[in-house]
Design a protein that fits this description.
about 475 residues, alpha/beta, D-Maltodextrin-Binding Protein, domain 2, 2 domains, 19 helices, 12 strands, about 40% helix
Amino acid sequence: MSYNVAQTPTRRDFLRYLGLGAGVLLTAACAQPATAPAPTMAPAAAGGQAAGGKSNGSKVTVWGWQSFTPEGDKALGDQIQQWGSANNTPVEYVVVENSQFPQKLAAAVEAKASPDVVMLTAASNVIDYAGRNLLVDISDVWKATSGQAGGFWSYVEPLYRIGSAYFGIPFEADTSPLFARTDLIKQASGSTDPPKTLDDLTTMCQKINNPPDLYAWGLTLGRTPDCFGNTVAIIWNDGGSLVDKDGKVALNSPETVGAINRIKSWWEAKLIPPDSPTWDDTGNNAAFQKKQSAFVINPPSIYGWMVANDQDLLKNSTMAAIPAGKSGSYSGSGAWSWSIFQTSKNVDGGKDLIHYLMDPQRLQAVYSQVGGRWYPIYQNGTRDEFWTSKPQFQFYPDLLKGGRDISYPAAPESNMFAALGEVQTRLIIPDMVQNVIVKGTPVQDAVKQAHDAMVEVFKARGAKT
C-alpha cells in the first residue's frame, strides 16, 4: 500500500472547533504493504464477525484524515490491507489532505459516490450525516467494541447515538489539557502537583507572576477559536453551559456571569499577558514554548513541539486536568470515529473491518506511530508502556473523566449541532470576552448580548431556543 500525503497537518487542521477546511485527495492504492514497524499486538482473529456478518467480497473503500505523521497513516493503512487480504476483499485506503476533507466528502455524498467506510473528526459530523439518513446503524459494532479494555471513556457514549441507534465508533480520544510548568509550580508550592482548583490556580499564578518576562496564566482572550475553548471550559467548571438538557440556549445564567467575572479578575490582576486579547490561535502556544507563561489550555500540539524542540521544557512540564471551579473539572473533549455510508455494497465487510481495527492492541500499534497525538479511547489502554513511560500524560485519565462536548448536557441533535457550529465560527463567545476585557462592557450585559446572539443563530438553524 503506497501513500502520497502532501503535508503533515497542524493541530489547527484537526481541531474540530475550527469547522475544518479544504486541499488534495490522495489515494492509497491497494498494493502489498511495505514493511510496517514492528507490531505491538499479539496475533488476532482476521475479523470481528461478532459485529455483523462476513465480507461479501465486494471492494471496500475507506477515507481517512491525515493522522499527524506519515508513519501513522501507513500503520493504519497496512492494517486495513491486512484485513482485506485475510477476508479476500479488495480494499482502498484514501488519505485525504485535512484541509480538503469536508469539501471532498460533501461532493462525494452529493454525487452518491461516498466511500464505504469514513473517518470523521467530530461527533457533530456523524449526527449530521445520520440525521440525513446517510449512515448505517452500527449499534452491533458499538456493542462488540465499546466494552473492551475497560470500555470507552464515558463522555463519548451519548455523542454518536440517535435514540437507541449508534452511527459512529470512536477510535481515539482528544481533549485540551492544562499545560503546566512543574518547575515553577515547585518553586511556588514546594510540590510539582498542578493546581486542583481555579482558586488554587489563582494563588499559584500570583506567586509565579513576574511581568514583563512572565505572565503566569496564558489564557487566550483573542477573537479566535482558542478563546472559545478556553472560555467554555471556565464556564463549565463554574457551573454554566451553552445549552440546557433540552438543547435550548442557556448561556445567560448566574454561573456564566460568575465565570466571566473570574476571567475579568485575572485580567485586572495582570496575571494574563497584556497582548492576549490580540492573540490568534498560536498565541498561547508561543507563550508557553517561549517560557513566557506557566499555564495554558491547549490541545497536545505543544507536547509534540516540546518533544521535537525543547527537551528541557518537556522535562519541566505536564498536562493536567483543568482546575475545578464551583461545579467541578471539565474540558472540551471529542474523538475521531468510523462510520459506514448506506450506499456501501459491503456493509457487513465495513462493520467487520471497523471491529478489526478496534482491537485494543492494533489501536496501540497505530497510536505509537502517531506519536502521542491520538490518545487511547479505551480506559485500560493508558496502561501500555508507551503511555506510562511518558510522565507528561499521567493526569490525562483525570482529564478525560471530565470530558464534555459543547452540546452538554443535551442529547445530540443535528439542528442544535449546526447552530453550535455557527456559534463557534461567528466567535460569539470570544466577542463576549472581548466586550468585557477590551470594551469595558459590564459582565452581565456582555453575557446577555452573547446569549441573545446565540438565540438568533438557533432560530435561524431551526434549533430549540
